[in-house]
Amino acid sequence: MDALDALHLRSSVPKLSGPAPSPEMLENIYKAAFSAADHAVLRPWRFLVVKGDSRKRLGKLFAKAGVANDASLEPTAIEKLRCKPLRAPLVLVCISSFKPHPKVPEIEQDLSAGAATQNMLLAAFAQGLGAMWRTGSLAYDPIVKNGLGLSNEEKIIGFLYIGTVDGGTKQLCEADIQSFFQEW
Ligand SMILES: Cc1cc2nc3c(=O)[nH]c(=O)nc-3n(C[C@H](O)[C@H](O)[C@H](O)COP(=O)(O)O)c2cc1C
């Protein structure tokens, strides 16, 4: 796919199924992260690849966090948390991994990690895959962060759900693009 088409046409796909991306597709996705703008080339990111039965382990962790936050959680709500990672054959946990640097504050490093994550979304779309960037309160939950082995300097900035498009893709939102750009 043409680069501008990917940039102009990408949209999120909430309904995903198998098969998971091929190893070659995955390599293209990983590689795309590394062309993100990155002050001082700190590579302030890392990604956990969660597939197969590991998704069930992630679901258990989500459920554990849910129950710890609300002991009265209904069994159906617990089950919903447990099933979240099963919504796609592959989940990438995207982590902003702060590296202290005299010229690069944390905000810039978070932005770089976000740019790397967006690049991966685009690389998935460009290869005909479906993908969606999700967070929710679980991304900021200390039990989830701890269970995934994050250090104190690290943040989960997203769960990228990636798979095969299951159903249609949605219409792109029309925006009054010009109104977001003012000559100054
Ligand atoms: C940091 C971040 C977190 C997000 N978290 C969620 C989420 O938890 N649930 C959700 O439905 N959409 C979430 N979104 C939005 C979707 O990924 C998506 O961008 C949105 O539905 C608009 O669709 P589009 O990407 O096709 O324009 C998040 C987006 C970003 C950038």
Question: What keyword list fits this structure?
Answer:
alpha+beta, NADH Oxidase, five-stranded antiparallel β-sheet, globular, binds flavin mononucleotide, oxidoreductase activity, NADP
Polypeptide structure, described:
It is built from 6 helices and 5 strands; from the N terminus they run αβαβααβαβαβ. It starts with a helix and ends in a 19-residue tail after the last strand. The chain binds flavin mononucleotide. The site of flavin mononucleotide (FMN) has 8 residues, from strand 4. Belongs to the nitroreductase family. This is Putative NAD(P)H nitroreductase. It is an enzyme of class 1 (oxidoreductase).
Structure summarized in a few sentences:
It is an enzyme of class 1 (oxidoreductase). One of its GO terms (molecular function) is oxidoreductase activity. With 184 residues, the chain is α+β, with helices and mostly antiparallel strands.
